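Quick question, first post here. What does this chain look like in 3D?
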Amino acid sequence: MSKITQVKASEILDSRGNPTLEVTIRLASGATGWAAVPSGASTGQHEAVELRDGDKSRFGGLGVLKAVANANGILAKGVTGLEASGQPALDKKLIELDGTENKSRLGANAILGISLAAAKAAAAEAQIPLYQYLGKAKTYRLPVPMLNILNGGKHAAGSTDFQEFMIMPAGARSFRDAIRMGAEIYQSLKKVLKDRKLSTNVGDEGGFAPPGLTNREAIEAVVAAIEKAGYRPGKDCFIALDPAASEFYQDGKYVLARENASLSSEQMVDYYAKFAADYPLISIEDGFAEDDWEGWQKLNAKLGKKLQLVGDDLYVTNTKRLEQGISRKASNSILIKPNQIGTLTETIAAIKMAQQAGWTAVVSHRSGETEDTTIADLAVGLSTGQIKAGAPCRAERTAKYNRLLRIEDELRTKATFAGMGAFEHLRK
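> Answer (accepted):
Ran it through. Tokens below.
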């Protein structure tokens, strides 16, 4: 009864006002599953291809009618009659129908929409939550949220060189407490910025985006906000950075325009080490460019036992690149974005490969988001221990956090909060 009988894709809007697509799948049993696909702003060049129309008369060329047509046409025809509960076989069929290494023919966005909607339909038919369908565990871990409360880079023009300044309330006793702490610190940061006569406009991911700050000034504002909210930096709450270094990597140098500096890979390692010494830093994501393997190795050699070093553009949720990272000892963590790779099966494979290597896997949103909350269930079902979903602001971000609050209430004693255990790999 889990055979797919109908696939229906449509063009909708994401949180930046750009088009994306949604997919609804119906099974022979009558069960349905719905999914919407997010879109990134600072995308890695090794990501699976998000198919756009290129028709300048619609959405400035960003329309996804071609992807929608592929989902409703060749992809729908290919998966109709398949069992939604057989996710690996379903995803294998989708990959074969596209036939390219990076899903550029039919579009990773079209493929992912079907992949996720099928899993949700299968979970609905089994009458179990998606996290249980994905994990099938007796006990679960609620993740530590990674909240982006100050935006820069491509997420907020005119702000800092670094793209994201995040807080991680890992000292909380529960997910509910962690979100409360995060929301209180977020509101506290607003007061700190106002007191300093800085803008409290928000960026793509809900974090404040004051123009003109240096990276150090931004971190100091976040530390002040943690303290102002009544929490202890480095005990109750930690800082995580996402410089998105590929965006300011030019001709072999890291160009920090706000600081009028052009640094080599060795100098960038020292730059991060100074931040780690001066502030309650626990995680750095994309500290080096996506193909600067040597820089990553140097950073990991110096700070890998003290900090979580997360590869995003470096790995793009791709097991082939992750395998290289593990063998080269390039980092100790991977960011997981399903739309970087295009199917649920490949996403889960990347998480499990990282976990088997003793690494962490941080499930993540994108800057162009929707109300879809799949990543919340994915983080719980695969027990990743961490989730990155933006600020505690804007409905497309809070939807993920609110879903986790509901999961925590639902599981009660069957779930624990990861807390500092999310960083167990740093103690080995």
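The first strand starts at residue 4 and ends at 13.
The two ends are 47 Å apart (CA to CA).
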